[in-house]
Design a protein that fits this description.
globular; disordered N terminus; 407 residues; binds iron/sulfur cluster; 2 domains; alpha/beta; 17 helices
Length: 407
């Protein structure tokens, strides 16, 4: 792996602050950070290493980018060789980076396709509607085609994997039209979800998908301190040649970084995002990971750790982050849901809380929260769910705080 320079975050921040006008009062690069700042960020990070996705053999960077990244971070990512872009359907016509449009074949652009006539729990898989959605996104973005068509949120159960061919059918139609090239999915957990009768957990569904052999790779929730079942799936996926990409990886890194008391005791010489990037790209069997990045500074902090070995300080950092996250950050496993008599959508609410608190996406989080049919104020604080939480989190307290933040 080629890295043009060793990372020193403090040094980077010092140099860049002097060189660039895009440095905000809050101490982070703004979306309009200038070309000089972007070049400096890219130089600080260097070129990211790549790994092959099994089956197709495409080489993608160990950390992939996302359509929701800060614009300056996307530009810096392109300079550092980031070549796989998740959920680019979030881009409006003017948002697509010129560097990607000019050199289209050098980038893998992924479109996320949702169920229709409802949300990820209640909606349908409908090949006609999915085709319409993809064709419109191709036209709007000007990308000409999408490399990867992703079934967003995935199947509800193993039975649905086996009995419902309509997503695969949509992919095959669009592939014949030259509008998509590869089939992939992201998978959430539906076990115990009262809105999804017979829902199963992500590892069970992903295992069935990998064994079926129609999808090339999958994204799933994965971070430090994760459950054995998903690690077993990652090992199986490797044997089956099914590609694996971790998502929702930060698990509270954003709030940790802003927690002065926590950071005061944090191991010197690293940061939560930096240690996370090292851990994800060297201590797991994943093909790649996506980390949400909200500023140019976060880009440097995070991506400069990609593919680099853990140091003692990073190991200690991940240990402390795990303890913090177990207290404060829902891992979205859905284990508690079946035990709430009020059917409060706990994991959805706490996912939106993560968007607001960790990604700084408060408007989006509020919009999603407002669209729920049942919100956190339906919680009676009975406490039943806490006994079922794999982390022993005080769920009622978390829900009350989320409601205050998002309503
Ligand atoms: S504390 Fe609230 S969320 Fe938990 S089981 Fe009781 S009502 Fe449901
Ligand atoms: S509150 Fe606990 S059990 Fe429920 S989804 Fe989050 S981590 Fe899992």
């Amino acid at each position: 792996m080629a890295h043009s320079s060793q990372f020193d975050r403090r040094e980077f921040v010092r140099k860049s602050a002097a060189a660039v006008t895009g440095f905000s009062a809050a101490g982070s690069f703004t979306a309009c950070a200038g070309p000089e700042a972007i070049e400096e960020a890219a130089r600080s990070v260097g070129m990211l290493s790549r790994r092959k996705l099994p089956q197709c053999g495409r080489e993608i960077t160990v950390l992939i980018g996302a359509g929701s990244w800060d614009k300056a971070a996307i530009e810096a990512g392109i300079r550092c060789g980031v070549n796989y872009w998740h959920a680019v359907n979030e881009w409006q016509s003017g948002d697509v980076p010129q560097a990607i449009l000019r050199n289209r074949e050098a980038h893998y652009c992924q479109i996320c396709v949702d169920r229709v006539r409802g949300n990820h729990e209640t909606g349908d898989i409908d090949d006609e509607e999915h085709c319409r959605f993809v064709r419109e996104a191709v036209r709007r973005t000007g990308l000409r085609y999408f490399d990867d068509m992703q079934f967003h949120f995935g199947y509800h159960s193993v039975a649905e994997v086996k009995s419902n061919p309509r997503f695969v059918r949509a992919f095959e139609r669009l592939k014949k039209e030259g509008l998509v090239r590869h089939l992939c999915m992201s998978q959430h957990s539906y076990k115990g979800n009262s809105r999804v009768p017979d829902g199963e957990n992500a590892a069970e569904i992903l295992t069935a998908v990998a064994e079926q052999g129609l999808f090339e790779h999958g994204q799933f929730i994965y971070s430090y301190g994760d459950s054995p079942s998903i690690n077993e799936f990652v090992a199986l996926a490797r044997r089956k040649g099914f590609g694996t990409i971790a998502m929702k990886t930060t698990r509270g890194a954003g709030r940790m970084q802003r927690d002065a008391a926590f950071m005061k005791k944090f191991p010197p010489g690293t940061t939560p995002y930096h240690a996370l990037a090292r851990w994800l790209t060297t201590q797991t069997e994943l093909n790649a990971a996506v980390i949400q990045i909200s500023s140019l500074r976060e880009f440097v902090d995070t991506c400069s750790g990609a593919g680099k070995a853990m140091r003692a300080s990073d190991t200690e950092a991940v240990r402390e982050m795990t303890a913090y996250a177990n207290r404060e950050v829902c891992r979205l496993c859905n284990e508690c849901l079946a035990h709430c008599e009020r059917n409060v959508p706990i994991a959805d609410i706490l996912r939106f809380e993560r968007y607001a608190v960790d990604y700084g996406a408060r408007d989006r989080a509020r919009r999603l929260y407002g669209a729920l049919d049942l919100r956190a104020d339906a919680c009676t604080r009975c406490g039943t769910c806490t006994a079922r939480c794999s982390q022993g989190m005080d769920i009622a307290r978390k829900l009350a705080r989320a409601h205050a933040l998002l309503s």
